[in-house]
Amino acid sequence: MAEKIVEFKASGRRRTSVAHVRLARGVGKIEVNRSAFEAYFPVEAVRNFILQPLELTQKTGQFDVLVSCKGGGKVGQAGALRQGLARALMAADENLRAPLKAAGCLTRDSRMKERKKPGQPGARKRYQFSKR
Length: 132
Fold this sequence. Notes:
Elements: E1 7-14, E2 17-25, E3 30-32, E4 35-36, H1 37-40, H2 44-50, H3 52-56, E5 63-70, H4 74-92, H5 97-102
Parallel strand pairs: 3-5
Antiparallel strand pairs: 1-2, 2-5, 3-4
């Protein structure tokens, strides 16, 4: 009989980016949008930012991570992935909540682009005032 694979799923969001994370016991392989982690996020500082939840909880190399990212840019997707990874780790072990929360890994960055208002050229910009 085949062995049942235990998976932990979670999603993270930052601005307009959404990351769906699947966490399974493994050797530490990370795949983002069907490509290698290092290829998708070439900047080392961004990779370290993403891996922060794994390093905080000393779970580096214990889980295989499969990620689907949509929307925003690379840094937005990195923030969403970080939150999704922290939530998935919390689903795996509820005792990890305190260190993840203290590090700010569970906080959602809700800043969005403000909508353009009618009668204005932008969200906040007004047309030039003319006294005469």
